[in-house]
Amino acid sequence: MIAAxxxxxxxxxxxxxxxWIYLDxxxxxxxxxxxxxxxxxxxxxxxxxxxxxxxxxxxxxxQQSFYGDKxxxxxxxxxxxxxxxxxxxxxxxxxxxxxxxxxxxxxxxxTRPRQWASGEEVNDxxxxxxxxxxxxxxxxxxxxxxxxxxxxxxxxxxxxxxxxVNPQRHMxxxxxxxxxxxxxxxxxxxxxxxxGTQGNIFHSSERWAAWVDARDQGIGILFPHxxxxxxxxxxxxxxxxCSYLAPLQTWALQPGMSFEFExxxxxxxxxxxxxxxxxxxxxxxxxxLVEIIAGGGRAVENKPATxxxxxxxxxxxxxxxxxxxxxxxxxxxxxVDAKTGxxxxxxxxxxxxxxxxxxxxxxxSFNAPHNLIADTAGNLYIADTFHHRVRRIDAQTGIIxxxxxxxxxxxxxxxxxxxxxxxxxxxxLAFNHDCTQLTISGDSKSGIRVVDMSTGLISTxxxxxxxxxxxxxxxxxxxxxxxxxxxxxxxxxKVQTLEDNTAIPPLAGVxxxxxxxxxxxxxxxxxxxxxxKFIVAERKLITLVGxxxxxxxxxxxxxxxxxxxxxxxxxxxxxxxxxxxADSRNHRVLRVPIKPxxx
Length: 599
Description:
The chain is an all-beta fold. Helix content is 3%, strand content 42%.
C-alpha cells in the first residue's frame, strides 16, 4: 500500500511506510516519493490513474543526479564513478530527506543523496528542489551544493534532469531549425535507438522536446539552460521498457560549487506543448540575455571583435567615446572600436621585453596585466601585475609611461612620488568619481594605495586591509569583498562590514569589483563562475549571470542559465549601464543588456 499526502490546498496525513506527496490543482497531478529523496515519480492529468512517468527504479525518477570521476565503485558489474543520486542507489537504498515543506500547490525538499553504485550516503553534497503545479504545468527548480574538496577532472554530460516515460510514448519530437525558432518551422519526429546509439544526442533550437504516442499525446519538457539533449528507447526488456530524454550540460564538479537549473513539464498534444512552452519563453524574454561581443574567432586584429581571438581576458574598460579596451593575461591590450566593431591590438605580447616607457604603446611590454581603467580624458591605466607598475597610455599620443611603481615587489614609498614607490603585486585599479584619485590593490600585504593625480604622491588607506579586488563608489566609499558581502570604508574613514548571511553560495575567489551607477557593487565571483551584485542599502547578495557550473554553454541565452569560466572582470558601460564580463577561461567578452529598473 502506498500512502499519499494529496495537496489540493488542504493537507492530509500520510499513513504508511512508503510516503508519497501529490500536488493536484485540478489540472495536473505531480507525485513525489519522499522515500526516494522527494524525487518525482508521477505525472498525470488531475486525479488520473494513468502515470506518464516510468519509475521502474530509483534511477528513473525525475531528480538530480550528477557525475564525477571514476571512484572504484561498481554498478552491477560495471566500473562506475562518483554519482550522487537524489532518489537513492541502484539497489533501492533511499536517500535521506533532511527537510520538506508543503505550501499550497508547491513542495520544497532538501535531500542528502546516495551514491548510485555503492549506496553510501553522500556527505559532501546537498540537493534542494522546489516543485510547483501551475495550471497545466509542473515547474521544477533545483539546486545542488557540493562541499567536497575533490576537484573532479572529468567533464561529464550532466542530465538536467533525466525524464523517463512509459514506452507507449515512442516518438520524440523537437525543433532543430536554427533560424526559425518559435515560428511555424517544421518539427523533427524520430524514434531514437537503444542506449549508445549514434545520433541520440540532438540539438533543440527551441529548448524543448516531447515524447508522444500514436495519437500525438504525451509529455514535454522545457529546458531553458541548454539547447542540447540526449535520448534513447528501451523496447525489448519487458517491464523495464521506457523512453528516455535528458537535457545536457557538460562540466566537472568543483569544490564549493553551487549549481541551479530549472525545467518545466507539460502534458498534451505536440501543438499544445509547443504553444504553452512558446508562451513561457515569450514571458521570460524580458529577462536579461547574455551574448558574446568579443572573442571566439581566429583573426588577430582588424576584423569584427567576434571574429578575433581573445585569450584570457582579465579586465575591461571604456573611454569617453565608448571604445572598449581589454587586457589579456597573455600580455596584450586590445581595443574594440565603438563605431565599426573592429578589434585592434594596442600593445602586443612581449612579456619578457624591456619596460619601453616613453615610446609607442604598441611596442611596450606587459607582464600578465590584470586590470585596466580609463579616465575622463580617455587616458588608459593598466595594472601591469608582474612588472609591479601602473602604466599609462596617453589618449592623444599613444605614448606609454609609468604612473606608479618602481618595479619592486616590496611595499614602500608612502608620502613620496608614486613612480618611485614599491607596489608589490597589483591586480585592481579604480578611480573616484572625478578621477582625481586612483586606488590600487593586489593582496592583503599591500593595502590599498592611493595616487593623488594632481600631485603624483602615493599613500595607503587606513582602516581597511588590502585585497585582490576593490571598488570605489560615487561617494568615495571603498569596498573589498568578504564571504557574504562587503567591508566598506566610507569617505570619512569609518569602516563597517555589510553582509547577507543568507546568500547561497558564499563568495569565493573574487577577482574584481565594480561600483555600478546606483552605487551597488558588481562582483566577478570567479570560483563560483558567476557575476553577483551586492545591493548595499539592502545588504543583499544576488546572482546576475551564471548558474554555478564552469563551462561555455548557454551563450547566447538567459543570463542566469549561462555557464561561465572563472570570470575575472566585470564593468558597466558608462552610458548604457550594460554589463560587460571578462569570461576569462572561455576566452571571450560577454555583454548583458540591462533594462531600466533591472535587478
